[in-house]
Specification:
The structure is a single chain. Helices cover 42% and strands 14% of the residues. It is of the alpha/beta class. An 8-stranded parallel beta sheet has the order 16-15-14-5-2-1-18-17. Strands 19-20-21-24-22-23 form a 6-stranded antiparallel beta sheet, with helices on one face. The radius of gyration is 27 Å and the shape is globular.
Amino acid sequence: MSAHDNRPASAPTSTYRLQLNAGLTLRDAAGLLDQLERLGVGALYLSPVLTAGPGSRHGYDVVDPTAVDPALGGDEARSALVHKAHERGMGVVVDIVPNHMSVARPDTNPWWWDLLRLGPDSPYARCFDVDLSVPLLIPVLGEDAEEALTIADGCLAYHDKRYPLAPGTHESGDDLETVHRRQHYRLVSWRRGDSELTYRRFFDVDELAAVRVEDPAVFEASHAEILRWAGLGELDGLRLDHVDGLSDPGAYLRRLTARFPGWIVVEKILAPEEDLPQSWPVAGTTGYDALREYTGVLVDPAGEADLTALATGEGVPVDVEATDHSARLHAASTLLRAEMRRIAALVPPHEEEAVAELLAAFAVYRTYLPEGLAEWTRAVDLAGTRRPDLATALAALDHHVRQDPDGEAARRIQQTSGMVVAMGTENTAFYRATRFIALNEVGGDPARFCLTPEAFHTAAARREARRPHTMTTLSSHDSKRSEDVRARLAVLSELSADFADAVRRWSATRPLPDPSLNLLGWQTLVGAWPIGEDRLTAYLLKAAREARLGTSWTEPDRGFEQAVRDWAPAVLTDLREDVAAFVDRVRLPGWSNALTQKALQLLGPGVPDLYQGTELWDLSLVDPDNRRPVDHRTRAELLDRIEAGWRPPVDSTGAAKLHLVRTCLHTRRELMPRGYTPLHAEGPAARHALAFARTSPGAHSPDLAVVGTRLPHTLESTGGWGETVLPLPPGPWTDRLTGEAVPSTRADGATAPRLAELLHRYPVAVLARG
């Protein structure tokens, strides 16, 4: 790891996430190392690098886990990148996908191809979670199947897709239907996938088939290449995608850590106050739990009433629990009905509705029995309260799982509940209950409008005590909107009445065709402004389809979607000046929020991740918008100026954020701060300061203090900091952002600077002792 790092060898000081694809290869990543080292990054954090499907833009659709993707440069480029990083004192962390593989193009996935060709006799049959007692259903055919399905190249062919023929099943003159019936699989209508599928998927994506890594042989085969890198000393950390989809995540993690002792974080969404299972030998999560706290503490509780009244008046649901429940039930009973049927078949009286109701009732994503028994009990009780008519079936499920927590029914219920929660809550309800979308983030809880500073400090101290090397994040490839969009949206809680009036005025002129989408649209427009027609329209169409109210992915409504397409150009023409004027009111305080949350993250407990490009202002929305190419050249040019001594103003260039990021990362790498001590301001504006102190190894008292600004619009409108001061631990102190010394305020050396002076240039300060 970093030469500056005296933590355990596996823990980086920070990470920088890169989204690799044909436009940003491993060689391209190597070309960025000098710039990232200058920025202060501790480790490069790569999206999946194993061979993915043709044209993959993200790497999560792996087709061959035994080789580095040639499209990214292959293993030679990977090894060269690692050695170049290590020469600069930087580590390399890689994202892997143990849960599933892409089967979109069977001819590109040798394991899946062999399974289709040989069925139960294939040595790869054990690799996939499939029911081989019946022909494997592949839901791929459209309305043109009768004309488009043929035999070509010795395969069944449907457009550009090829499916193998089992040995001896095709002779000259055989008709298509007969040959098709002889196979170990059946190509069927795509509409049959949700209800009849005979293999487990990633969520409801037919083209991603689940892998049985619980089988030791499958684990070895699918992890051999990754473990080879580790054996060569060319792997410093792993990010594990979607561990909740695994049959037994804890057993998988124990098997993995026995072979790879490096830094490991898991993509695991924690509910408020939930912690990772104690038995998991990992550093922590990928940081969505921390993201929720960084956003929540910047939200003004005074805005809740106005925004709730706006949503209610516009016909937007504000009962988060009811919205969640409805969306989860739809996910379970419709999108994942094949899984409901498979589980129900295992437990008499085989009641699908009871399974769906139970899976929709969890307050957390899943349990890991015997760990999480209280959450299991709570879900069973809630399901019974909601549906007393299913009491007998629910009792049977409960009894069966408690009697055999390692059995198939228990395993399938638990690994499926996470899918139901994610698909119901994140992918659907978050687009329906749009009262205040700053809260509708991965890992978020829209029912909790804000987080008090006291609760924020408690959570930070808890993180330092329990998982000091967990990852923290503000933006990711999966986040619903970027950190800087959320930072600006948080200001709406301070201007809630004015924003509500503006939305009512704008909606009277140019409404979107659904209330939830309408409120989402106006918030998005303000949060991401300036935004072009194409980006805005693409986002709103995705949001509408995810919400499944006026349209959907599988049943698109042309009239509804045309109204959505017409909205952006109309609004950006008719209401441009009015919207721009409102954005002018939130832009500066939005920048203040963005800098504050960045300082809190980069110097607080945990290992901070910086998502590609977010060292400058980034107003991206959900994927694919947040996976656009990054202009690294501009960032390098600004970094040159900052290294030469320029202290940039807070303006539209975002250079002030780059300055903050560089300062924080270098400070973190130098001081290696530990511990966590809240600092409390005193004076008329004390509630607007959020500060803490930390201590480097060997120091006898805190030698790092960080202060940021809360509710900046309200602070400005009520007269500023006035005589508010921030008492500091014994100094002397210097603000590393401005280079200015913080003078003692008493003869005995005590220091309590006036915040009006300390924060005169930036809304944050990074104070180091000495």
